Each structure stands twice: as C-alpha cells, then as structure tokens.
C-alpha cells in the first residue's frame, strides 16, 4: 500500500476528530450567543414595563389633582398625559415577547387590567360627586392597573443577584417599587391638601415615606455602597418634599388648612418622583449596555470561531488532495 495512503488513513481520523470538536464549539458558542440575545431583549422589555408603570403613575397624579380640584386643575395636562400613556402602552405591549412567553399568567393579567383603563377615565370624566371617596376611588383604580405591572416586573426580575447584570435588575426593580410608593404619596398628599388632613392620612404618608426609604436602602446594599441613598436624601428634591412632610406631621389633625397649596405639593412630590425616575433610567441604561455588550462579544466570538473552522477545513482538504496525488 502506498505510503501516502497509509498516512491518509492515519491522519484522516484526527481531522475528523478536530472537525467534531470544532462543530461542538460552534454549537456551544451559538447557544451562548442566543442566550445573550435573549438577555438583551429581556432588558429592553423590562424597560418597556417600567415606561408603562411611569406613565400610569403620572396619569394617576394628574387625575387626582383634576378630581380633587373639581376639574379646575390639570385639565390640559391630563388630556396630554392620557395620549402619552396610550402611546406608551401600545408600543410596550407590541414589543414584549419573551417576557410574555416566560411569564404568561402575569402578562395576561396585565393586559386584562389595562383594558379597564377606558372605564376608569370615563368614571373620572363623568364624576358627579365630590369628597374623599371619589379621590380614593381614583387612586385605587390606577393602583389596580399598576400593581399587575409591578408583579410582572418582579416575576421577570427574579431573585438572582449572582452577577452584576442580575444585581442591577434587582436594583432597578427596587427603585421602581419605591417610585410607586412615591406616586401614592403624591396622590394621597394631594387629596389631603384639598380635604382636611386626618390622623390616618398623616400615618399613611409617614408609612409611604418609610417604605420608600426601606426599599431604597436595599439598593444601597445591592450596590455595595452606603453613600447612594444618603446622597439622594441631600438633594433639593428630597429636602423640599421632606420639609412639607414635617409641616404635615406637626399640623393639628383637625386643622382646616395647611400653609402650602396643592400645586406646591404636586411640584415637590413630582420633583422627587422624577429624580427616582432618573435613577431608574440610569440603571436601565447600564443594564441595556451590559446586555448589548455581551451580545456583541458573543457574536464576535462566534464569527471568529466559524472563520477559524472554515480555514481549518480548507487546510485539511488541501492536505488530503496533496496526499492523494
């Protein structure tokens, strides 16, 4: 038997073995790239959920201000906000695919609740009574829309904090949860400025503020720093709202008026909410960046591996052709 045939029989199995390992590595790298793409898409969908929550919170605030002022405050702002809410919801729901599949029950509950938004608005536009009850109804109606969105965000986020990416997801959810408490604080306080501040309302505002700080302190723990929350508490937004809280707590529960207006309360509480929104957006941007970076890195590694495998295959084929001559 010619020597080249013997060499071919000896070397060919080695080439086949190398080819098998190359194919196996490509398959693993492709799976890793697909997972990174899933991660990047989930990060974008998480952001869409946060956007819906935020716009509904804004609409709730304007709605409470509108109803509590007998329709004199925020009529134009409320109309504009409703349009913005509708656009955000339509865009977000059309783009949420992976989370909808992974958490079908929570997603279906969100869709079902959002379908009641029109009835909530009709009730607000056609209200024929005044007083605390209608204000509480407005607050509760919007909260029933927001709570399922928070539940979906929590289900998507999970409890994993093992990597920087997963820890940041936890931080974002916690900030979003604190922002919801701040939204309830704005609505509850606005109702109290119009009506008479009761002891129960003072207690509720105190509880909402305490829950916000407890939730935000968890973000400090996740970030591994004790400076983030104290820095927030030194901002003019926090200090301004905290000053109003102090006035409320020191006021006589039977007083007929407070030394600030509904507009001042809305401005201070909205400024605080907007600051939390900025913090949430910063974490979201970091999450999207990390996920996109991982997706790009795995794509680059997959491309390099495929080109290397193609080069190796052509080299092996050339060797076989030479050996058979």
From TrEMBL:
Q: Which residues cross the membrane?
A: 305-324
Can you say what this protein is called? Nitrate-and nitrite sensing domain-containing protein
Pfam families tied to this protein:
NIT
Concerning InterPro entries, the annotation shows: Nitrate/nitrite_sensing (IPR013587)
All copies of domain Nitrate/nitrite sensing protein, residue ranges: 51-287
For this UniProt record, the keywords arranged alphabetically read as follows:
Membrane, Transmembrane, Transmembrane helix
The organism's place on the tree of life at top rank: Bacteria
């Amino acid at each position: 038997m010619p020597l080249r045939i013997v060499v071919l029989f000896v070397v060919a199995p080695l080439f086949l073995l190398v080819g098998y390992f190359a194919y196996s590595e490509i398959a693993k790298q492709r799976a890793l790239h697909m997972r990174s793409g899933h991660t990047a898409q989930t990060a974008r969908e998480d952001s869409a959920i946060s956007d819906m929550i935020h716009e509904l919170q804004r609409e709730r605030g304007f709605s409470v201000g509108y109803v509590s002022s007998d329709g004199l405050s925020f009529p134009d702002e409320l109309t504009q906000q409703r349009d913005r809410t509708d656009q955000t919801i339509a865009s977000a729901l059309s783009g949420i695919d992976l989370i909808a599949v992974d958490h079908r029950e929570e997603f279906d509950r969100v869709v079902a609740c959002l379908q009641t938004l029109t009835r909530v608005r009709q009730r607000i536009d056609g209200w024929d009574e005044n007083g605390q009850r209608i204000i509480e109804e407005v607050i509760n109606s919007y909260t029933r829309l927001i709570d399922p969105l928070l539940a979906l965000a929590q289900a998507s986020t999970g409890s994993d904090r093992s990597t920087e990416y997963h820890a940041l997801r936890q931080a974002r959810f916690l900030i979003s949860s604190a922002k919801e408490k701040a939204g309830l604080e704005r609505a509850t306080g606005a109702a109290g400025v119009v009506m008479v501040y009761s002891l129960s309302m003072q207690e509720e505002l105190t509880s909402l503020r305490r829950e916000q700080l407890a939730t935000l302190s968890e973000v400090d723990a996740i970030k591994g720093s004790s400076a983030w929350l104290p820095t927030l508490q030194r901002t003019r937004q926090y200090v301004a709202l905290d000053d109003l809280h102090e006035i409320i707590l020191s006021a006589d529960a039977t007083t007929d008026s407070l030394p600030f207006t509904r507009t001042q309360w809305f401005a201070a509480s909205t400024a605080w909410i907007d600051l939390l929104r900025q913090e949430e957006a910063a974490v979201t941007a970091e999450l999207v960046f990390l996920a996109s970076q991982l997706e790009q890195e795995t794509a680059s590694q997959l491309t390099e591996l495929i080109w290397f495998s193609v080069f190796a295959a052509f080299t092996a084929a050339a060797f076989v052709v030479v050996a058979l001559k």
